[in-house]
């Protein structure tokens, strides 16, 4: 059975939406993917529909739109969705620095070049596959399937660990046991914590600050190690 990818195209120009849609169909056909495409005429239109349907894999997002621009919309989207791959479409290079805070996969400059577009979509699929890794946890008699990309950090509390993600889960396990179940995006901050490198907003000599506001103490001598891990992160 072929893989299905759900793609949202948000652009206020019908000609651009139609062109992107046709390229997505060609890309999907070349790779034997099943492509589901939804088109939106504005950021407001997308967010209204997103409230009911949140399962998009890839978002092709124009920056220069009407009342709400694409970067502002991406900030709102990232408040509860860290996995959708955002690809900005723009006619200007001025906005590129804004993409870092919303973890945009790429900027594509208009007019879109077919070969470059296909390469970026291939990268999006690669990241989506990595994000599919799931941690199966038995907690309070129920099975929880937790995508590891949603984990902010885990900390030790006596003989238990607490995993902080969109929910907080406490279970009897050592930090070393958990570390083996995760991937290279997690950094061991001494004996007491595992931190998702992708969730870090800044690092000081003594602390790691996460995007959700959490602050993790950084052991002596670990400052260079965590910075090196961030730089080498794929």
Written account of the structure:
The protein is α/β, with parallel strands linked by helices and about 230 residues long. The protein has 6 helices and 15 strands. The strands form 4 sheets. The protein has a 5-stranded parallel sheet with strand order 2-1-3-4-5, sandwiched between helices. A 5-stranded antiparallel sheet has the order 10-9-8-12-11, with no helix packed on it. It has a 3-stranded antiparallel sheet with strand order 13-14-15, with helices on one face. The longest helix is centred in the middle third of the chain and has 18 residues, at about 115-130. The radius of gyration is 20 Å and the shape is globular. The chain starts with a strand and ends with a helix. About 25% of the residues are buried. The mean pLDDT is about 90.
In brief:
With 234 residues, the chain is of the alpha/beta class. Helix content is 29%, strand content 32%.
How far the N terminus sits from the C terminus, by CA atoms, comes to 29 Å
How does the major sheet shape up? 5 strands, parallel
Rg value: 20 Å
Protein structure class: alpha/beta
Helix percent band: 25-40%
**Would you identify the regions where 5 or more consecutive residues have pLDDT less than 50?**
none
What's the tally of helices?
6
- Helix and strand run: EHEHEHEEHEEEEEHEEEEEH
Strand order of the largest sheet: 2-1-3-4-5
The backbone outline, from C-alpha atoms, is: globular
């Amino acid at each position: 059975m072929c893989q299905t990818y759900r793609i949202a195209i948000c652009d206020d120009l019908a000609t651009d939406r139609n062109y992107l849609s046709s390229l997505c169909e060609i890309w999907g056909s070349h790779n034997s993917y099943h492509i589901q495409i939804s088109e939106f005429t504005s950021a407001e239109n997308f967010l209204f529909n997103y409230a009911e349907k949140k399962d998009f894999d890839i978002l092709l997002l124009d920056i220069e739109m009407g009342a709400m621009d694409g970067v502002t919309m991406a900030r709102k989207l990232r408040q509860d969705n860290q996995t959708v791959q955002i690809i900005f479409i723009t006619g200007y290079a001025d906005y590129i620095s804004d993409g870092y805070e919303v973890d945009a996969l790429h900027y594509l400059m208009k007019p879109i070049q077919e070969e470059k577009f296909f390469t970026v979509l291939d990268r999006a699929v690669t990241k989506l596959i990595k994000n599919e890794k799931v941690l199966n946890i038995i907690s309070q008699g129920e099975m929880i399937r937790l995508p590891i990309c949603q984990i902010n950090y885990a900390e030790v509390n006596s003989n238990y660990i607490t995993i902080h993600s969109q929910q907080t889960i406490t279970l009897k396990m050592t930090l070393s046991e958990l570390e083996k179940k995760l991937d290279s995006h997690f950094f061991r901050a001494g004996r007491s914590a595992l931190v998702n490198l992708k969730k870090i907003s800044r690092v000081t000599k003594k602390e790691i600050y996460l995007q959700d506001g959490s602050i993790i103490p950084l052991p002596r001598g670990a400052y260079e190690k965590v910075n090196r891990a961030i730089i080498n992160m794929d």
